[in-house]
Amino acid sequence: MDSKYIHANFEGEIYKLWERSGGFGPNDDPKAKPFCIIMPPPNANDPLHVGHAMFVAIEDILTRYHRMKGDAALWLPGTDHAGIETQFVFEKKLKKEGKSRFDFDRETLYQMIWDYVQENSGVAVDQMKKLGASADWSRFKFTLDKDVVEMVLDTFIQLNKDGLIYRGERLVNYCTSCGTGYSDLEVEHEDRNSPLYYMKYGPFTLATVRPETKFGDSGIAVNPKDKRYKEWIGKEVEVEGLVGKFKLRVVGDLAVDPEFGTGVVKVTPAHDFTDFEIGQRHGLEMRQVIGLDGKLTEIAGKYAGLKVEEARKVIVEDMKTKGLIEKVDEKYMNRVATCYRCHRTIEPMPLKQFFIKVEPLAKKALAALDSGETKILGAGREKILRHWLTNLKDWNISRQIVWGIRLPVWYKRDNKEEWVASKMSPGKEYVQDTDTFDTWFSSGQWPYVTLLAQRTNEKLRMENGKLLNDFERFYPTQVMETAYEILPFWVMRMMMLGIYLTGKSPFTHVYLHGLIRDEKGRKMSKSIGNVINPLTIVEQYGADALRMALVIRSTPGLDKGVGDGDFRAARNLTNKIWNSARYVISRISNQTPSSNDKKFYEHLGGVVKNVTKQLDDLRVGLAAETVYNEFWHWFCDECIEKNKREEISAKALIEGLVVFLKLLHPFVPFVTEAVWQELRQEGLLMNNRWPSV
């Protein structure tokens, strides 16, 4: 053996050995216990970040472990078209070239984005391979694969047949910059200092942060229990405005907080979610004063055409001139909805969109949690999931973008209120909707469509002679591993849609890893300069060091800080494995038994039992810590030293090394495989059996 383990000399060649062996797929024994993880599909267009490295490490550890146990282990990989995220990136590219999405028709723009994604689609896969990912690449899926798209369309059509789809004009979260609506889950909120304007409204003074929407007001609301204003409920008042006087009806509604401002609020149903609901309850008109371009509409009179921020300044100055502003609270703090992509302010907008009725789907997902059909691993995360499922509003699945799966909805050319759901045009008199599905609608079906899309394996037959395909063999899957922040976006929707489509929750366990932070516990940020590039760490310390540093002592649902010290410590482990093997090989010729061997084997058996149970219980971080400590402090520091004093035999030491190589392999696969080959053991370590308990 070489005197030092240099990871760069081994990792590339070892990965080629693994791939050539064909050992990444599940075995063909129909009686083998299935173990399946469906990979959370990273953006096909983006390089990996350290969060991706975390999911690769955890999922690969579990897959390698179950493969060595003899289970039919399948880690099914894929990538996501990522809808608005990809189109957003592509539009920035166009902007640098002096172009815009509006310069192209739909088909041309779609093809341009497709070509752009295809050019970069191999990046994520190549990087995952560098991390040692033993996924079955022969089963790789993309969310825009033809067979996947067909199944996603079928789901929408079936939901419609079951009465769970409707088209309605409701308020949606709209980004005037990205040009699309979003669901509630995709909106981020920021605490901001926003001036609170106290405006004179006829006989009242009311407070608002949005004076520019006053032209869309169709009512004034007070709390019916507020004695100050009870006599006004039901009356009509005249208000002095900037474009003339107008009349508004006063309504009583419990949604009004008597403690906010003066206890009187203006109601703008077209531009505020609470106001929309008040308007629905009291039959108030919906007047749209902000257009999809982010500018005031013609009902704003002379202010039409101004963008929101500019309009607010002008309107406030004009109201001050007319004596309509009583005071301004400059220290008011409020929560502002922002676009999760471009971070611009979200505008609630009335749009005709397609919605899924989520209540019946959410109830079944809650039932799966109640029964234990699906267990959530992550501190307090099940409670969060239950909260979302209990309070979820109907899901807006329409997106006003080109990049994605187009809605299979067709309208009569002369009557857009009449529509049908069909994969094919019902006739020449029909025209297709231009919206695409929310990305989470297709990825929410990921376990179902990826397994159903796989070809039947002719070697696999059930006892009755029926061919056994991937869906029948692996659904529901055993583990869904992903980041906790994606719980309501993705995990919840996979549960709802998976149960709807199959009657079964798509996974028995959800393992939620936390955020990876720097060694000071800070969130990684380009502005701070503490972002860790996983490929840089691989180049410097090796893939094994990155994997071990990320997972050791990690706990589901909790964030973890890492830094150079952690990577160096993990690299030292790979060196320790290599150097201990060099010593053991040098002692092979001395096979004399020792009276202390029995205690050695008893302790070794206990280590195997502990690590096996910890991995079976999905305590990955604890298992990593156990095998690390036992190998370093017991096997190396104690047993090798005892061997030097002839208190433990070389035979026991060699057998112990073989066992530890197997126990360590899921965590640090490259160095253990390299040592295995140096020991000239049978076959590949990756395909060897896990030590028996």
Note down, in words, how this protein is organized:
- Among the domains are: 162 residues, Alpha-Beta Complex (Isoleucyl-tRNA Synthetase, domain 2), CATH 3.90.740; 40 residues; 144 residues, Isoleucyl-tRNA Synthetase, Domain 1, CATH 1.10.730.10.
- The mean pLDDT is 93.
- It has 693 residues and is α/β, with parallel strands linked by helices.
- It is elongated and about 105 Å long.
- The relative contact order is 0.13.
- The longest helix is centred in the last third of the chain and has 25 residues.
Main features:
693 residues; alpha/beta; Isoleucyl-tRNA Synthetase, domain 2; Isoleucyl-tRNA Synthetase, Domain 1; 4-stranded antiparallel β-sheet; 4-stranded mixed β-sheet; 21 helices; 27 strands; 19% strand
> Quick one: biggest sheet?
4 strands, antiparallel
Could you name the ranges where pLDDT drops below 50 across 5 or more consecutive residues?
none
Which second-level CATH architecture of one domain applies? Answer: Alpha-Beta Complex
Assign the CATH topology of one domain: Isoleucyl-tRNA Synthetase, domain 2
Strand order of the largest sheet: 6-5-16-18
Which word captures the global form?
elongated
What is the averaged pLDDT score?
93
Rounded to the nearest angstrom, the radius of gyration is: 31 Å
Q: Which CATH class of one domain is shown?
A: Alpha Beta
Give the beta-strand count.
27
